[in-house]
Amino acid sequence: MEKRNKIFIIIILGILTILIVFGSINKVYKMHTDKMVMVVENKLKESAKKCFLDGKCKDGQTTVGELIKLGYLEEGIVNPITKEKLSNYVLITYEDDECYVSLR
Fold first, then answer.
1. Are 73 and 44 in contact (CB under 8 A)?
2. Which residues contact 8 (CB under 8 A, 6 or more apart)?
């Protein structure tokens, strides 16, 4: 009987350890991808804001392709999640001195 209890306790502890490790790894990976996306979004926002403040971009909206054409961004910006080149049609809006873009 005591041997069964020891085996049962070892199995429960093993399952709990696996759940804790898996949860921690998942959280760290999610935080890492969120930070990578935030870096690219901030780069797009800064470039777009500079374009709007210089008066070259108008109507409160611009695209990545337009920013590249005007020289505010270099070509080859990569989406950190998909590892593909960012589409030239990604829309960036400008309202109340703030730029908004979403890559998710």
1. yes
2. none
CA pair distance 52, 60, nearest whole angstrom: 8
Which three-class secondary structure state does DSSP give residue 5? Answer: helix
Torsion of CA 55, 62, 67, 48, to 10 degrees: 60
pLDDT digits 0-9 by tens, 28-85? 999 999 999 999 999 999 999 999 999 999 889 999 999 999 999 998 899 988 899 9
Alpha helix (H) residue ranges in 2-88 = 2-54, 64-70
Tokens read off for 43: 């780069």
In angstroms, what CA-CA distances link 16 with 6, 19, 32, 64? 15, 5, 24, 47
Q: Running DSSP on this structure, what letter comes out for residue 78?
A: B
Q: Which amino acid is at 86?
A: L
